[in-house]
Write a structure and sequence with these properties.
By secondary structure, the protein is mainly α. The protein has a domain of 181 residues: Intergrase catalytic core (hpI Integrase, Chain A), CATH 1.10.443. It has 14 helices and 8 strands. The chain has a 3-stranded antiparallel sheet, with helices on one face. A hairpin with a 2-residue loop joins strand 6 and strand 7. It is globular. The N and C termini lie far apart (104 Å). The relative contact order is 0.07. InterPro entries: CB, DNA_brk_join_enz, Integrase-like_cat_sf, Integrase_catalytic, Integrase_recombinase_N, Integrase_SAM-like_N, Tyrosine_recombinase_XerCD.
Length: 400
């Protein structure tokens, strides 16, 4: 019975996945409680080991809730190792787990030896203050870390290990205001002027920077793009995938975007269509036929995008920005060059509503009222009175 990387999940000789677990001993009969299954709670057969593990985790949690399982000697470290981390890993996307794993381990180390039921408000507040004053983390990362800690204690309450989430007697850490640096049109033009497109890799770098700047797509959306997502005749770009990648031998082109509203089709300008046509032809000569942003027909690493941006920012002597800064740059370009309508911008970005767009990009509309100010100039016409028509009493009127 071949094992999988998930504890309690196996694969039979026909390649079908199933789980098998023990839930302790029945208090009435003294017999071991065992569960085995090949389908989820909706009766659907498992298509992957991860799906089987999710069902296994759900059954464990339901059992503990129904049986009021409480372990008074359980330490926070044991709770994290045995309960919360397996539950969390089974509940989130692989990319989310990968980015949160280090943080969860750090939290486990911080509170590891303290019994779960003996964590105090002071322990929580000391951790909160340490994050803000001494950790060296950004405000947003401090918010993320303390939020993960609080959620772990929420789960302990759910499983009846503790009666309340003691950390909620302390204040949450706000994310703070973060304005992402971006390139203005002039800076973007300087960057393009440093790229030598007769080199295959540099040509790919040009296409990468151009496409992100001119479409506003998310980094993971761009890395997942296939040529089948582009209709060069109708000048449309279909954004329906994101890339989840560990390495070039282990990646998933997920058939959905960050949010449901992120599934969208973007209209392309003629310049972008011309650039993509030429790039497709060049790629074909090098045996690349699937991924648009690729020089090997394998997807790029996210870190490669950042290195490309930083390389040409340095050459152009403009500020280095993040990959998501090109998304902000696109919004700035639409607003400052074309006075773009908020609804159009929102749809191109894949936001669920214009309110979401304003929440993140309101500061980019700061110059949007200059045309109105110009029109207001001289529009109000009047003449001052030749003499006062007010009958003042006392010292309210001072004659000059």
């Amino acid at each position: 019975m071949p094992k999988t990387k998930y504890v309690g999940v196996y694969r039979d000789k026909n390649g079908k996945y199933f789980y098998q677990l023990e839930l302790g001993v029945d208090k009435a009969t003294g017999k071991r409680i065992q569960k085995k299954g090949r389908k989820d709670h909706n009766g659907k057969p498992f298509e992957s080991a991860r799906e089987a593990y999710k069902e296994l985790t759900r059954l464990k949690n339901d059992f503990m809730l129904q049986n009021g399982y409480i372990n008074y000697k359980l330490t926070y470290g044991q709770f994290m190792e045995q309960k919360y981390i397996p539950y969390y890993r089974a509940s989130v996307e692989r990319s989310t787990w990968s980015s949160r794993q280090t943080g969860l381990e750090q939290i486990k180390k911080r509170f590891g030896d303290i019994k779960l039921r003996e964590i105090t408000v002071e322990d929580c507040e000391n951790y909160r203050i340490w994050l803000l004053n001494d950790s060296g983390y950004s405000q947003s990362y401090c918010s993320l870390m303390y939020g993960m800690f609080r959620k772990s204690l929420d789960y302990a309450v759910t499983l009846n290990f503790v009666n309340e989430n003691i950390s909620k007697r302390t204040k949450a850490i706000s994310k703070g205001k973060s304005i992402v640096p971006y390139w203005a049109k002039e800076e973007f033009q300087k960057v393009l002027g440093t790229i030598f497109i007769d080199d295959f890799y540099e040509h790919m770098s040009f296409v990468l920077i151009w496409l992100y700047y001119m479409t506003g797509i998310r980094v993971s959306e761009g890395l997942a793009l296939h040529w089948s997502d582009v209709d060069l005749k109708r000048k449309k770009l279909r954004v329906h995938h994101t890339l989840d990648m560990k390495n070039q031998n282990d990646f998933i082109r997920k058939p959905y975007t960050k949010t449901e509203s992120g599934m969208r089709t973007i209209s392309l300008d003629d310049d972008t269509v011309k650039i993509l046509k030429r790039w497709k032809s060049i790629q074909k000569k090098h045996g690349v036929e699937h991924f648009i942003l690729s020089y090997t027909d394998l997807p790029l690493y996210r870190s490669t995008v950042q290195r490309i941006i930083e390389r040409y920012a340095k050459l152009a002597n403009v500020p280095a920005i993040q990959g998501k800064g090109l998304r902000h740059s696109h919004v700035s370009y639409l607003i400052n060059e074309f006075n773009a309508d908020i609804l159009v911008v929102s749809q191109r970005l894949g936001h669920s509503s214009p309110e979401i767009t304003l929440k993140h990009y309101a500061h980019l509309w700061s110059r949007n009222d200059e045309g109105i100010a110009d029109q207001m100039t001289g529009n109000i016409i009047f003449n001052f009175a030749k003499e006062s028509k007010v009958d003042f009493n006392g010292n309210q009127a001072v004659k000059i």
